[in-house]
């Protein structure tokens, strides 16, 4: 579904985590938010049975159901959920539902238990060993979700796809307005044969060459590019172009072009040489406020991370938050 292309707000990559679960006898609920796809090694047993890369509860012999509460690493508006039961065949839950809540600060299990939860996915049927994608219509900002499995069983991953809506009161004056964790997104790109450009906007350092944007080899006179919508309109101060891990396939040069909300363009970084396997930082000349930035690489190649540090429009961020 289309919503699955949006960021996973619950991902451990954004700092998401399992706050509480009522049972994790066979496999820990922490697996639910891991960013990597679930794996499986058949006939791998420990003292509790087959080892699963997911959350698995014991067979329930009493009324009720099992549940796990997840803190979203990036609070925001949820557009859909993916309840992935990969490799759970005879032990997956037949049904599930999802609730959500917005709470300030860092509530503990007792505060979460007393909160007024909103049902964003009613009791819905699940299939085993596969993805179960359901759209969410409630367009509110949430900070936590609760996955209910009915009555018990195993779920490999829970993906909570949506739009990031950060709290501007928790952001410094200058921050990375190209960061996915603050709401920046990729609008378009010329090529993503080896790697999706959205990876450039993820937190932290790239783990390897596969954790970045990489294009196929160009055989024409053109060049590759990616267009990023910033988390908020901003006046940019610095740009980080990180080619770490890209050694024989880094771009030779790059430029940055900004666009305002009227579509006017401004040169932010002229054509500049890049080095392989190198984090580059460039000071940007004072310019106008921009809403989108286009990174052009010449002629092609890979980029591990793109960071654009600037002063964001606080009124825009507060309006998104509803303040």
From TrEMBL:
- Does the keyword Ribonucleoprotein feature in the UniProt annotation? no
- Catalytic reaction(s) noted: allantoate + H2O = (S)-ureidoglycolate + urea
List, alphabetically, the InterPro entries matched. Answer: Allantoicase, Allantoicase_dom, Galactose-bd-like_sf
Name a Pfam family for this protein: Allantoicase
Pathway assignment = Nitrogen metabolism; (S)-allantoin degradation; (S)-ureidoglycolate from allantoate (aminidohydrolase route): step 1/1
UniProt GO MF annotations: allantoicase activity
Q: Which EC class is this protein assigned? A: hydrolase
**Keywords, ordered alphabetically:** Hydrolase, Purine metabolism
Where the record annotates domain Allantoicase, the positions are: 15-164, 183-311
**GO BP:** allantoin catabolic process; purine nucleobase metabolic process
Which EC numbers does the record give? 3.5.3.4
UniProt xrefs under HAMAP family: Allantoicase (MF_00813)
Q: Which NCBIfam families match?
A: allantoicase
Per the record, the similarity remark reads: Belongs to the allantoicase family.
PANTHER family listed in its UniProt record: ALLANTOICASE (PTHR12045), INACTIVE ALLANTOICASE-RELATED (PTHR12045:SF3)
Q: How is this protein named in the record?
A: Probable allantoicase
Question: What organism does this protein naturally occur in?
Answer: Actinoplanes utahensis
Which gene codes for it? alc
């Amino acid at each position: 579904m289309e919503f699955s292309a949006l960021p996973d707000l619950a991902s451990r990559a954004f700092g998401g985590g399992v706050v509480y679960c009522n049972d994790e006898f066979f496999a820990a609920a922490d697996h639910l938010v891991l960013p990597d796809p679930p794996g499986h090694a058949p006939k791998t047993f420990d003292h509790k049975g087959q080892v699963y890369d997911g959350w698995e509860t014991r067979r329930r012999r009493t009324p009720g159901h099992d549940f796990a509460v997840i803190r979203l690493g990036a609070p925001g508006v949820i557009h859909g959920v993916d309840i992935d039961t990969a490799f759970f065949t005879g032990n997956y839950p037949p049904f599930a539902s999802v609730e959500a809540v917005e709470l300030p600060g860092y509530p503990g299990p007792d505060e979460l238990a007393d909160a007024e939860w909103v049902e964003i996915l009613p009791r819905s049927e699940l299939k085993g060993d596969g993805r179960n994608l359901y759209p969410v219509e409630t367009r509110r900002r949430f900070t936590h979700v609760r996955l209910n499995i009915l009555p018990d069983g195993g779920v490999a991953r829970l993906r909570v796809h949506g739009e990031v809506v950060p709290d501007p009161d928790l952001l410094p004056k200058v921050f990375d307005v190209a960061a996915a964790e603050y709401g920046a997104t990729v609008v378009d790109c010329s090529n993503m044969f080896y790697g999706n450009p959205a990876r450039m906007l993820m937190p932290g350092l790239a783990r390897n060459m596969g954790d970045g944007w990489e294009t196929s080899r160009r055989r024409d006179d053109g060049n590759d590019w990616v267009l990023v919508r910033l988390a908020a309109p901003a006046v940019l101060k610095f740009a980080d172009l990180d080619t770490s891990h890209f050694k024989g396939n880094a771009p030779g040069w790059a430029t940055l072009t900004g666009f305002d909300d009227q579509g006017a363009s401004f040169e932010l970084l002229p054509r500049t040489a890049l080095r392989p396997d190198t984090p580059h930082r460039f000071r940007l000349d004072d310019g106008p406020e921009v809403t989108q930035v286009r990174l052009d690489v010449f002629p092609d190649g890979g980029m591990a991370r793109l960071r654009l540090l600037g002063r964001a429009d606080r009124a825009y961020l507060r309006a998104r938050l509803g303040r």
